[in-house]
Design a protein that fits this description.
Elements (H helix, E strand, L loop, with lengths): L23 E9 L9 E9 L5 H11 L19 E4 L2 E4 L14 E4 L6 E3 L2 E2 L2 H9 L18 H5 L18 H5 L6 H11 L7 H8 L13 H5 L6 H14 L13
Helix pairs in contact: 2-5, 5-6, 5-8
Length: about 270
């Protein structure tokens, strides 16, 4: 009987049949488009040798580097922070860098395409300008008068009030999963509302009413139909639908419900 291999630096034998250590062939079917050559997008098959712990981003790299250098997609940090590589994988919005092969059904082809609702530029790349235009319109920055000599202090409760919506990485996965956004290019979209929420409920900010007025529009929060697609699509786990509901409530009240400070100034 053959002796079991021993792991380096360990007295324990290596697993004799660990599937994650063995490569296998996966078929990716990618929706390609190049305006110089294509009138309509087309689906192209690629067979790629991968490991279970590889990600969809690794598969795309292998295709681009080893099979077809013309394949185009965005990526940067490759660790789920920059938000560059949002795409539709098997019909769901995900980050390619956070989607592991072992979490998908590899007995079937894996379908990859660009996110919906934004103009397609090439292959998996969309024009993000309409998305960022809505983001800029909600004034996503702190607006406060005065020039304090030190930091503006917040209590734990005040900081927790908007903690969830600080996690947004502007990947557009939530906005491009929204059926209202697909059919109405004027809708602000979930990501813009989430980033407005982050400042509307910040006790240090003084422009909450301005943002509430901006979002109290026919293309603002009232276009949301509460389908929860956005919350399911968010790779950061933000409760997007809840944030939108809180902004709606603030519009109806005429002001946000920001906790009062329990701190005593020195």
């Amino acid at each position: 009987m053959a002796e079991a291999a021993v792991l380096e630096g360990s007295n324990s034998p290596a697993p004799a049949d660990d599937a994650s250590l063995k490569p296998f062939t996966v078929t990716l079917i990618i929706r390609r488009f190049d305006s110089e050559f294509d009138d309509e997008p087309r689906w192209v098959d690629y067979d790629v040798e991968l490991f279970a712990t590889d990600r969809i981003l690794d598969a795309l790299h292998k295709i681009k580097w080893e099979q077809d250098g013309s394949l185009s997609f965005r990526r940067s940090c490759a660790h789920g922070v920059c938000g560059s590589d949002a795409m539709r994988i098997n019909g769901r919005n995900r980050l390619a860098c956070k989607t592991l092969i072992k979490d998908l059904d590899i007995s079937k082809p894996i379908y990859v395409e660009a996110i919906k609702g934004l103009p397609l530029e090439k292959d998996l790349i969309v024009d993000m300008e309409p998305f960022f235009a809505s983001y800029r319109e909600v004034q996503p920055f702190l607006q406060a008068s005065g020039k304090p000599e030190k930091e503006r202090i917040q209590s734990v409760a005040q900081r927790e009030r908007f903690d969830d919506t600080t996690k947004c990485i502007l990947c557009a996965a939530c906005t491009s999963s929204c059926p209202v956004f697909w059919t109405d290019g004027q809708y602000f979209g979930p990501a813009a509302i989430v980033n407005a929420h982050r400042f509307i409920f910040d006790s240090r900010d003084e422009a909450a009413q301005v943002r509430l007025d901006i979002l109290n529009d026919k293309e603002g929060v009232w276009r949301c139909r509460t389908t929860f697609n956005c919350s399911e699509a968010c790779p950061r786990g933000i409760e997007v639908t809840k944030a939108i509901a809180e902004v709606k409530a603030a519009v109806l009240r005429g002001k946000p419900d920001v906790p009062k400070s329990d701190l005593v100034s020195a």
